[in-house]
Write a structure and sequence with these properties.
Number of helices: 2
Distance between the termini: 14 Å
Helix content: 25-40%
Shape: elongated
Number of domains: 1
CATH superfamily: TT1725-like
CATH architecture: 2-Layer Sandwich
Structural class: alpha+beta
Largest sheet: 4 strands, antiparallel
Radius of gyration: 17 Å
Order of helices and strands: EHEEHE
């Protein structure tokens, strides 16, 4: 039996400024806590993806997967809510955010190998 559906997912990149920070360890700890809070509140997979050795700068990558029944508009609203909360809870200043929402049609097979 073959069924099909649409998968919606978002990928993003967030640049953070940790002004006047004096230790990489402090920044790394703050980013890890931020990623954990985003995962708990929004079911987001997030991680520092660049500038790990920089003291006052960090880059966070994230991904979100949405239920197939969720509309594109609702998915976009969820991402925008995530961005707003990030700016409110982050100990670092959000310098730049980039994200995109993707949709793909998937066909599920009967489980047998191709």
């Amino acid at each position: 039996m073959t069924t099909s559906g649409t998968i919606r997912y978002a990928l993003g990149r967030i640049e953070l400024d940790f002004y006047n920070n004096t230790a990489v360890e402090k920044k790394t700890h703050a980013i890890r806590e931020l990623c954990e809070q985003l995962r708990k509140n929004h079911n987001v997979s997030a991680r520092e993806i660049d500038a790990e050795e920089a003291i006052e700068y960090g880059v966070l990558g994230f991904s979100m997967i949405f239920p197939t029944r969720m509309s594109t508009a609702t998915a976009q609203d969820r991402i925008e809510k995530l961005m707003k909360e990030l700016e409110e809870i982050s100990p670092m200043r959000v310098v730049r955010e980039e994200w995109d929402l993707f949709e793909e049609m998937l066909e599920a097979g009967d489980g047998s190998p191709p």
